[in-house]
Structure formats: C-alpha cells, structure tokens
UniProtKB/TrEMBL annotation:
<feature type="transmembrane region" description="Helical">
    <location>
        <begin position="6"/>
        <end position="30"/>
    </location>
</feature>
<feature type="transmembrane region" description="Helical">
    <location>
        <begin position="123"/>
        <end position="141"/>
    </location>
</feature>
<dbReference type="Pfam" id="PF06197">
    <property type="entry name" value="DUF998"/>
</dbReference>
<feature type="transmembrane region" description="Helical">
    <location>
        <begin position="147"/>
        <end position="167"/>
    </location>
</feature>
<keyword id="KW-0812">Transmembrane</keyword>
<feature type="transmembrane region" description="Helical">
    <location>
        <begin position="188"/>
        <end position="205"/>
    </location>
</feature>
<keyword id="KW-1133">Transmembrane helix</keyword>
<dbReference type="InterPro" id="IPR009339">
    <property type="entry name" value="DUF998"/>
</dbReference>
<feature type="transmembrane region" description="Helical">
    <location>
        <begin position="51"/>
        <end position="74"/>
    </location>
</feature>
<feature type="transmembrane region" description="Helical">
    <location>
        <begin position="80"/>
        <end position="102"/>
    </location>
</feature>
<keyword id="KW-0472">Membrane</keyword>
<protein>
    <submittedName>
        <fullName>DUF998 domain-containing protein</fullName>
    </submittedName>
</protein>
Amino acid sequence: MKHTFYSLLPLFLLLDLVIPFLLAPTYPGYRHTRQVMSVLGNRSAPFHTVYTLWLLFLGTAILLTCAQLCPLLWDRSGGLSLALAAILIIYALGGCILSGLFPVSETKAMETLSAKIHGFGSVLGFLALTFAPLVVALFYFKGRQTGLALCALACFLLALVFFVLFVMADKPRFAHTVIAWEGLWQRLTLLFMYLPLALLCVRGVQ
C-alpha cells in the first residue's frame, strides 16, 4: 500500500478525461467540443454531484501522490522535486478541490462568488500544470534519458499551444471559428499535461 496513489495516478488522470464522456449523455445539449468539462458540475447538470465528488477525489489523490512521488525525485534534483511539488499542490487545490467546492454556472459567466472562485482556482491550477511537462523533461535531461526528455518536452510545447487556444476560445472575435472549440482545446491541453506525469509515475526514478 506504500505507493498506492503514486502507482494509480495514471489511471486517475485517464479517468479525468473519460468521466465527462460518461456523464455528458445525461446532460441534453452538452457539446464536448464547445463546452468545458466543469460545466458538468454546475447545479443544472443531472449528475453534478458525481462530477463534484470526482474533482475532490482527484485533488486528494494528486496531493497524496505528490507526498509519495516528490521525495523519490529528491536525490536526482531537489530543485525539480520542489518545483513539481508546487505545481501539483497548486493544481490539486485550485484546479480540482476549489473547482469542485465552488461550481461554475451553466454559461461559465462570472456572476456569482462561486463562479469567481472556481474561475480563479481553475486558471491558477491550469497555469501551474502547464509547466509540469517541462519539469519532467528537465528531470529526464538531468538523468541523461534524452528520449524520455524529448517526449516530455514535446508534450510541454503541445500543451502550451492548446492552452493558448483554450484561452482565446471565448473571445468574441473567434465566436464562429474553430478556435471557439474551447472544450476540445481544454481536453487536449490536459492530455498533454497529464502524459508526462503518467510516464513519471510509471517509470519513477528509473
């Protein structure tokens, strides 16, 4: 049981991408390409409690993983270990736990205190997690594992591109273009943020 969450984190990250596809059919009119995943947690969604509980669980799992994984990385690089710990903690608290406790409205409008807290937490969490692939890449470069480092670096660059598209998606000037597909950009951003973390959990400090 020593490394339970450490070894299971790749599964949890995969579930974070899959669960919206399982819940969406219960929410008439929901579109994966156009709407962000957190819309499934608004109080109008039939199974909003399920998605809220999932975010709280995922945040807790990431914090437990951080407590197990980062000390294993310390011997190779204390600085990178601290950087990864900070990233995971910010994402777990802001992007998961705060986002779960304070749901967004159906339209993502910042009209309520809950929506504002959700928006602040999710933006902070996403910004932090964007740099997780870069930290993983530096960790592998430091260990002279060039192939793994380049894979993580490619994920960082792709995550950065999709994150920029995600931020641009709700701008009025892009309303009738493919850039407006913020749901798609969010999922692709998370995918490339998650992949290096999953790789690190699978391989550890090998």
